[in-house]
Amino acid sequence: MGRNLTAGTNRHGLVGEFDAFAPRRPGFDEIVSQARARRAGTFVEEGRVSREVARAGGYAMVRYRLGTDEFRRDSERVDPDFFVSTDLAPHTAVFGVLDGDGRAQAIVQAYGLSRHGYGVSGLYGAPGRSVGADVMARFLALVDAPPTPGTDHRASDLFDVRFDADSGWVAQAPRHLVRVTFERVCFDTRPALRETTDVLVPLQPGYDLADPDPEAADAAAHRYKSFGLALVGKGVRPGFSSWWAKDAPVVVKVVGDGLDAEIGPEEAPGEEPAGPRF
Questions:
Q1: Bridge partners (DSSP) listed for residue 202
Q2: How far out from the chain centre does Cα 251 lie?
Q3: Which residues of 227-249 are buried (b: 16+ CB within 10 A; e: fewer)?
Q4: Fewest CB within 10 A of the end CB: N or C in the chain?
Q5: How far apart are CA 66 and CA 43, in angstroms?
Q6: pLDDT tens, position by position, 194-211
Q7: 166 band by pLDDT with thresholds 50, 70 and 90
Q8: Is 205 within 8 Å of 268 (Cβ atoms)?
Q9: Does 84 score more than 80 pLDDT?
Q10: Which secondary-structure segment (H or E) carries 112?
C-alpha cells in the first residue's frame, strides 16, 4: 500500500483557525480570584467550551480550545502524559472523540505548517475505550491529514485504522503473528555466551494459544515452536548448542506493512516440519 506521510489537503478546513482555539491568557485579577476560590474550596471549573465538528455512530468529535479545564480533564482521562508544547501550540489543532455520555475516548492531535502542510502528529486512546475502527476512520477522514512517521503505527495499534495514499483513512481488520523466541548457548566461553533470536510464524486456524483446553493450548504451542524452528534453521554453529524454544510463543499485533509478506493466508502451510518436541 502506498503512503504519503508528508502533506495533507485539509479539504474540510478543520485544521486551522489556530488563534480562535489558542489558550486564553487570564488577567492578573482573574488569576488572583481563582487562587482565592481554590483555597476556599469554592472554585468551579468551567463547563464544555469545545466546538463540536462531527458526529458518527453515537460519538461526537469536538475541537478543544487549548488550556481550558475541559481540555485538561479530557486529556488526563485519555492519556495523562499527553500535552501540547508551547512552540507547537500556535500551529496545533486537538480533537476529542466523546461517547454518548460525554466521556473522552480518544484524542487526535494535528498540525498545519506552511512548509510541511498538514499532518496527524498524535493519536491517543483512553483505557477501556469503546470507540470502534469505523468511527475513528470517519473522524480521521474529516481531519483529512496523513499521519507522521510513528503515528501511523499508533493508529493501527490503538484503533485498527491506517492511512492509504489513495483511499485516505480507512478501518482495517487487526493482523497478528506468533512470536517464538529461540536461544542457543556457547559453552566455549566463560561466562557462557547466550544468543537469542525471535522468529514470526503466521497464525493458523485451529491452533489457539489461548485455548481453554490445556491440551489444545499445548498442541498449539508445540506447532508454532516446530514451525519456528524450521524458520530459524537447524544448523549448528561451532561451539554452540542447538536452538531451543526459550519462552512460550506469544501472539503479537502487526502495526505496519513491512511484514505483509510474512503474514500470508491464515492457514496451515502444509505438513508439520520434522523436529524434536519441546
A1: 177
A2: 16
A3: bbbbebeeeeeeebeebebeeeb
A4: N
A5: 20
A6: 999 999 999 999 999 999
A7: confident
A8: yes
A9: yes
A10: strand 104-113
DSSP code for 179: E
Residue 18 has a CB neighbour count (10 Å cut-off) of 15
Are 93 and 119 within 8 A, CB to CB? no
Average pLDDT, the chain: 85
DSSP at 23:
P
CA distances for 208 relative to 220, 224, 244, 250, angstroms: 6, 10, 21, 11
Which residues lie closer than 8 Å to 153 by C-beta, 6 or more apart? 255, 256
Handedness of CA 98, 103, 106, 108 (dihedral sign): positive
Residue with cell 485538561: 72
Pick the CATH number of 18-171 from 3.40.1130, 3.40.630, 3.90.930, 2.60.40: 3.40.630
Lookup: cell for 253 = 499485533
pTM of the model: 0.78
Strand, coil or helix: what is 10? coil
Burial 82-108 (b: 16+ CB within 10 A, else e): eebeeeebebbbbbbbbbeeeebbbbb
Q: Is the pLDDT at 175 greater than 80, yes or no?
A: yes
- Asked if the model's pLDDT at residue 216 lies above 50, the reply is yes
| Residue 132 pLDDT greater than 80, yes or no | yes
Q: Dump pLDDT digits (tens) for 25-42.
A: 655 565 566 567 667 666
**Which residues make up the CATH 3.40.630 domain(s) of the chain?**
18-171
The alpha carbon dihedral of 24, 29, 31, 36 has a sign of negative
Question: 251: part of which helix (H) or strand (E)?
Answer: strand 250-253
What cell does 40 get? 476556599
Q: Are 217 and 225 in contact (CB under 8 A)?
A: no
Sign of dihedral through CA atoms 164, 167, 171, 175?
negative
Q: Say if residue 220's pLDDT is above 90.
A: yes
